[in-house]
Amino acid sequence: MQKATDVTTDRLTATYLFPASDRPVIRGNMVASIDGAATANGKSGGLASDGDHQIFHLQRALADVIVVGAHTAVVEGYRPPTVDQQYIADRVERGQNAVPPLILVSQSLNIPDDYATIADPGVIIATCAEAPDGARKRLQAAGATLVDCGETSVDPLLLADELHRRGLRRVLCEGGPRFLATIAAAGLLDELALTVSPTLVGGDAQRIAHGAAVHVDRGRMRLRHLISDDEGYLYQLWERADPRSTTQNG
Ligand SMILES: NC(=O)c1ccc[n+]([C@@H]2O[C@H](COP(=O)([O-])OP(=O)(O)OC[C@H]3O[C@@H](n4cnc5c(N)ncnc54)[C@H](OP(=O)(O)O)[C@@H]3O)[C@@H](O)[C@H]2O)c1
Hints:
CATH superfamily: Dihydrofolate Reductase, subunit A
CATH topology: Dihydrofolate Reductase, subunit A
Radius of gyration: 18 Å
Order of helices and strands: EHEHEHHEEHEHEHEHEE
Bound molecules: NADP nicotinamide-adenine-dinucleotide phosphate
Number of helices: 8
Shape: globular
CATH class: Alpha Beta
CATH architecture: 3-Layer(aba) Sandwich
Number of strands: 10
Largest sheet: 10 strands, mixed
Structural class: alpha/beta
Helix content: 25-40%
């Protein structure tokens, strides 16, 4: 197994580039304990490491868009994304925005209107036609931009269509567990970057995909890449066992 210290920054970047595709490619990015917990003390931060942060930020710098469940964004205090200056020129060369937009997914629109991130022009809330009208108006008054992708909930296929329409094809899905399960159950999870933290959590923490059941044919994946670091973290990159039309890195 490769050690992180033996992997150059260029090599790491090449590893985590999204495959070029004429349709959105969705990659989940999650961290778990050895016993599969997605949180320690209610947050994922307790499982992360410097290496995990590095790969997290690298993938953001390679993505066209970041999509995350609104609950996770609020719990984790998500702010509008930023990209390190060193990646901007390559992003422009790939035809990407300097900074990827952030899409928060919510059906209930149970998002505090004093959560300042929602008013950023680079942030969109993906919701559904039957979302409560009062909450919709409250968030719009707070400066949020909303887009409907479904009737009673966000339909992952309609969300993918919306991303495609906007030219956003390298999609980084940062969870949380319920939203990741929704994407995987719809058969739309193409890749999964998973950090395994060398720790046991026990208790009743959620797994990284929790809720919607994934049909066995849609859940089968194969390992594309694995490195470790001196602290014992494992950085895994998984891809669908039946990859769809991907051609080259881009
Ligand atoms: N280990 C990791 O890598 C990792 C990553 C992210 C988060 N976490 C942790 O996970 C915990 C949160 O877990 P969670 O499962 O509740 O997070 P979550 O997946 O962010 O929660 C579900 C969110 O997605 C929305 N959603 C999911 N499917 C939807 C659909 N089809 N249509 C519309 N909205 C949909 C929900 O909408 P509503 O607003 O309507 O409920 C809710 O806001 C936090 O403690 C966080 O720290 C861990």
